[in-house]
Amino acid sequence: MRISRRHTWMKYVMICCIVLIMIIVVLGITIIYRYTQLLEVSPLSSAAFWEDNRTLSTGRSLPSSIRTINNVNLTNFTLVITACCRNVEKYLGRFQKNIRAIGNLFGNYKIYLGESDSQDRTLEFIQNWAIEDPNHVYVYSAGNQRWNLYLRTRRIAHCRNHLLSRARADMPSFDYYLTVDIDKASSPKFTIDSFLSNFMYPLSSWSVMTASQTDFYYDLWALRIWPSMPFDFIKYTRQASIISIAWQSNIDIFFSVHNKGIPRDHPLIEVESAFGGAAIYNAKYLSHDCSYDGWMNHGFWFYRQQCEHVTFNQCVKQNAGQGKFFINPMFETTSEKIFIIKYVIENLFFERKDTVKYTIALSDLPLP
Q1: Considering the entire predicted model, what is its pTM?
Q2: Of 28, 178, 327, 363, whose CB neighbour count within 10 A is largest?
């Protein structure tokens, strides 16, 4: 009787072991299959996106500069500047100095600042700024937005859309639209000369110029460039992964290849979308259909976040046509290189108080 029971238990153990082995094999095959799918979409390269020879083979010639920075005159143009603020008090002094200097290059300019959920004196600073300069600075506070719009990218998109709609209401016609992240635009590298480098090129030759970094190019989530990264790399690395460790490894691979710093003397880089902490748009390509969207309309709820700049940039690019959307290596912000890649996945969607910055620059954004 005991021998019979022992044989029965041994059979159960063997069956469980076989099932477990089968599960491991199926998971392994699935991971390999999904990773193969990822490679078919975009074969991994040892070269950064801006060094990839395939990227340079568009058949279109890049714009050439026609004037020096000293010969740029913007006094006949108007500029709208927008920025979203949350807990950025420590950056605001330098940001104010930099952005005023840029605004004063134009015949007229207006700065629209949106704030929410700050726990420092961000709101107090920008409200005082608006009181001191009521002709140029406009402040809008949404109070506590975190529980109304829980996900990060939805709050950012809401803020950017609101500021742009207010600007359109106040100034039905303006020439250029500059949107920035306050921490990036507070950098000593974000200078007048850096900004004016965009206007060295014929104004008809570009619709958007986005910022760059020489230490390392951090903003891969907003980047779309054929064929190196024509997709949301977070989405595709997730699809190539079953478990978070594999997802993290794939993210690490992409960053190790593509976030190499871009030299200032590098030519313009044609892209489908980019940001880099600052972007200036020719306003004639900003139709009212163009809006920021940080939420995909498909997939699992907790996987639907997307970089809000991409949908906006796609609309502008469609209005402008091919060959007018660039990263300008001379238009420089800072990336403040801090790698905490291991937190990317667990902090992508939810707040964490023990982490300050992420490689994909989510918590480093001035979130509304």
Answers
A1: 0.81
A2: 327
